[in-house]
Amino acid sequence: MSLAGWKGMDDMTMIIEMDQVQKYYQKGKVTIKALNDTTLSILEGDVLGLVGESGSGKSTFGKLLIGLEHPTGGEILYEGNPLWKKSKYVRRKPGELQTVFQDPQSSLDPRMTIKEIILEPLYALSKNERKQKGSYDHLIKLIKRVGLKEEYLDRYPHEFSGGQRQRIAIARALITEPSFIILDEPTSALDVSVQAQVLNLLKEIKEERGLTYLFISHNMSVIKYMCSKVAVLYKGNIVEMGETEELFNNPQHPYTEILLSSLPSLIEENEQKMKGFAETAQSKTENSCIFYEKCPKRTEKCLVGPELELRGKDHMVACHY
Amino acid sequence: PSDDKGDGTETADGQGGEKEILTVAMTADQGTLDPAVTMDNSAWKITYPAYERLVEYDGESTEVKPGVAKDWNVSDDGKKWTFTLNEGHKFSDGTELNAEAVKASFERTLAIENGPAEVYSVISEINVESDYVVSFELGENFPPFLSTLAANYGGIVNPKVLEHEKDGDLGQNYLATNTMGSGSYELTEWKQGEYIKLSINKEAKVQPSIPEVYFRIVADGATQRMQLEKGEIDIAEGIPTEQIESVKSMEQVELLQKPSLLVDYVYVNSSKGNEALKNPKVRQALSYGIDYESMINVVHQGYATPMRGPVPDGLWGHNPASFQYELDINKAKSLLEEAGAKDLTLTLLYSDNKTWWETEALTIQANLKEIGVDVKLNKVAYATSREMMEKGEFDLSLGVWSPDFGDPYMFMNYWYDSENLGLAGNRAFYQNEEVDKLLRQAATSNDQEEREALYYEIQDIVIEEAPYILLFQKDFVLPVSHSVKGFVYNPMLEGIYNLAEMTKQ
Amino acid sequence: MLEIKNLHVNFQTFRGTIEALKNINLTVDEKEVVGIVGESGSGKSITALSILNLLEKNADIIDGEISYRGENLLTLSKKEIQTIRGKKIAMVFQEPMTALHPTMKVGEQLSEVIRRHRVVSKKEAKQLMINALKDVHIHNPEYVAKQYPFELSGGMRQRIVIALAMAAPPDLLIADEPTTALDVTIQHEILQLMKELNEKKGTSILFITHDLGVVSEVCDRTIVMYAGEVIESGVTKEVLYAPQHPYTKALIEALPDGKDANEPLKAIHGEVPNLMERPAGCAFASRCQHVMEVCKMKQPHLTHWQNQHDVACWLERDG
Amino acid sequence: MEVQTQTEVQQAPFVKRSALLYKLKKNKLTMVGAVILGVIILAALFAPLLTPYNPNVIDAANKFQGPSWAHWFGTDEVGRDIFTRILYGARLSLGLAIVAIVIAAIVGLMIGTVSGYFGGYIDQIIMRTMDMILAFPTLILAMALAAALGPSIQNAMIAIAFVKIPVYVRLARSETLSLRESLFVKSAQTFGIHPFRIIRKHIMPNSVSPVIIQGTLDVGDAILLIATLGFLGLGAQPPAPEWGAMISIGWKYLLDFWWYPTFPCLFLFLSAGALNLMGDGIRDVLDPRSSR
Amino acid sequence: MTKMIFKRLLLLVFVVFGVTLITFILSNIIPGDPASMMAGQRANQETLEQVREQLGLDQPILTQYANYMQGLLTGDLGTSIRTQKPVLDDLIIFFPATLELAILAFFIAIIIGIPLGILAAVKKNTFWDHASRIFTISGISTPVFWSGLLVIFIFYGVLGWFPANGRIEMQVNPPTHVTGLYLLDSLLSGDWVAFQSSLRHILLPAIVLSFAQLAIITRQVRASMLEVLEKEYFRTAIANGINGPYLLIKYGLRNALIPTITVIGVSFGALLGGAVVTETVFGWPGMGKYVVDSIAYLDFPAMMGFTVFISIGYVLINLIVDLSYYVLNPQIKE
Ligand SMILES: Nc1ncnc2c1ncn2[C@@H]1O[C@H](COP(=O)(O)OP(=O)(O)OP(=O)(O)O)[C@@H](O)[C@H]1O
Ligand SMILES: Nc1ncnc2c1ncn2[C@@H]1O[C@H](COP(=O)(O)OP(=O)(O)OP(=O)(O)O)[C@@H](O)[C@H]1O
Ligand SMILES: [Mg+2]
Ligand SMILES: [Mg+2]
Ligand code: NI
Question: A202, B180, E60, E230: which has the highest count of C-beta atoms within 10 A?
Answer without folding.
Answer: B180
